[in-house]
């Protein structure tokens, strides 16, 4: 069995373990919040530190930052057009789920298993641009259509964006890399030990959060959302495969990155601004399954 098929099977096994732990009540879904905080604030920043410590900066990596930002903005414009005639809260629910990509929690464990830290370097740069979409634009959309349930002032947005530990870590490592400064070796070694927990914890968390209950009246709305998100993503991936002249990990990052699922941060936004949390959670989980299958098929084809 090839290494990437083995990696996908291992990933599925760990996700199923997380789901079984929840179903057997050994772990509660509420426990996932604590695991998520550890992943986002501890293990993922350590992965970023280790990944970027050995990065030699070149112009192609900067392009990935701009592409991550531009792709999110394009998705937002398409979602605005598709859902323009819906009620404000329905519009806000689905518009906040289309633009962003779940790179830190979903892509990182798969990429680490397939390409190691070299692959994480490329996806990390894509996630720098994506982070401004996830923690900035998506938050703004959720607040704007919440019908007065939240605030939308610029200060609140910037405060929230720059309170994101992964984003701040990205920016610090990015700046240190450009000015050719290195972190102390003891710090990098410590981060390396902690970063090894990121992949299993992230995959367990995906399993704990799996939930697919939905109301009949939401089926059409969910179908429209999924067609919009994956219509854009699959089209962009195909265009990249045939027309992007750069081969290797840069191309693989774009092809796989464009079909990643909705970021899990939309669930806290749904809670914060009083959206339908079950609907948002179900939509997010569906994208996880769809993206998993699409990436498995894609990597089988391109590798």
From TrEMBL:
Where's it found, cell-wise? Membrane
Q: How does it sit in the bilayer?
A: Multi-pass membrane protein
Top-rank taxon of the source lineage equals Bacteria
Q: Name one GO biological process term.
A: transmembrane transport
Residue intervals passing through the bilayer: 6-22, 34-55, 61-82, 94-111, 123-146, 167-187, 193-212, 224-244, 250-271, 283-302
Tagged with keyword Transmembrane helix: yes
Keyword Transmembrane helix appears in the UniProt entry? yes
Q: Which keywords annotate this record?
A: Cell membrane, Membrane, Transmembrane, Transmembrane helix, Transport
Among the entry's GO cellular component annotations, what is one?
membrane
Which InterPro entries does this chain map to? Mem_transp_PIN-like (IPR004776)
Principal localisation: membrane
Protein name per UniProt: AEC family transporter
Q: To which species is this protein native?
A: Gracilibacillus halotolerans
């Amino acid at each position: 069995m090839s290494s990437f098929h083995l990696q996908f099977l291992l990933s599925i096994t760990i996700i199923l373990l997380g789901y079984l732990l929840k179903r057997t009540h050994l772990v509660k879904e509420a426990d996932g919040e604590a695991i998520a905080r550890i992943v986002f604030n501890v293990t993922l920043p350590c992965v970023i530190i280790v990944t970027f410590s050995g990065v030699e900066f070149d112009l192609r990596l900067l392009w990935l930052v701009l592409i991550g930002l531009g792709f999110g903005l394009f998705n937002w414009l398409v979602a605005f057009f598709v859902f323009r005639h819906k009620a404000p809260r329905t519009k806000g629910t689905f518009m906040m789920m289309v633009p962003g990509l779940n790179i830190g929690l979903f892509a990182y464990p798969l990429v680490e298993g397939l390409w190691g830290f070299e692959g994480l370097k490329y996806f990390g740069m894509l996630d720098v641009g994506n982070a401004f979409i996830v923690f900035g634009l998506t938050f703004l959309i959720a607040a704007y259509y919440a019908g007065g349930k939240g605030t939308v002032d610029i200060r609140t947005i910037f405060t929230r964006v720059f309170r994101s530990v992964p984003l701040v870590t990205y920016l610090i490592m990015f700046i240190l890399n450009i000015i050719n400064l290195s972190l102390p070796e003891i710090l990098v070694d410590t981060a390396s030990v902690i970063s090894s927990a990121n992949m299993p914890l992230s995959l367990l968390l995906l399993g704990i959060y799996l939930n697919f209950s939905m109301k009949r009246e939401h089926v059409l709305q969910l179908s429209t959302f999924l067609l919009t998100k994956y219509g854009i993503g699959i089209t962009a991936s195909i265009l990249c495969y045939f027309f992007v002249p750069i081969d290797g990990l840069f191309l693989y990052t774009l092809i796989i990155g464009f079909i990643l699922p909705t970021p899990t941060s939309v669930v806290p936004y749904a809670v914060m601004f009083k959206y339908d949390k079950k609907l948002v959670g179900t939509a997010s989980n569906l994208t996880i399954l769809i993206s998993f299958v699409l990436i498995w098929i894609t990597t089988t084809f391109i590798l």
